[in-house]
Amino acid sequence: MAVIAGLWSCERDDICASTTPTTPHLIVRFYNINNRSELKTVRRMNVTAEDNPNYILNDKTVDSLVLPLRVDALDNVNTSRFVLTRDQDYATDSIPTTAANADIIEINYTPELIYVSRACGYKSIFNNLSAIRETDAINWIIDIEVINTTINNEDAAHINIYH
Hints:
The chain is mostly beta strands. About 5% of the residues lie in helices and about 50% in strands.
């Protein structure tokens, strides 16, 4: 009897629906530097966080990325740095047939906690988004453009990268 009473006392808020928006990721789209409205794939891309050797993306040809942002301190500027490597091509004997080219992008933002519901708790959103590319001798990333300075959903790109 106590079990039945317990089930009737559950409220809809006690279970977080799978459709409830959670902390969003950074969405990056790649475009042709010569035609800034034309998507352009990046061949054989690897992506890692600068301080973590585990791949976020490994050996994929893509025209967009979904990147996780770290939260070190709320309401303060945080930084995530990513190493984007393109054109790592191996022949069957594991000798590179093209030269890989790695560029580092730095993403700065201010995380903020937003209350979602009693069952879901909080999610982070990211404000004041900015992005730069670290300059090296042969950058394949030519330009970075921030499209949305607030990351509160994953409905559209936040950053465009031109190459």
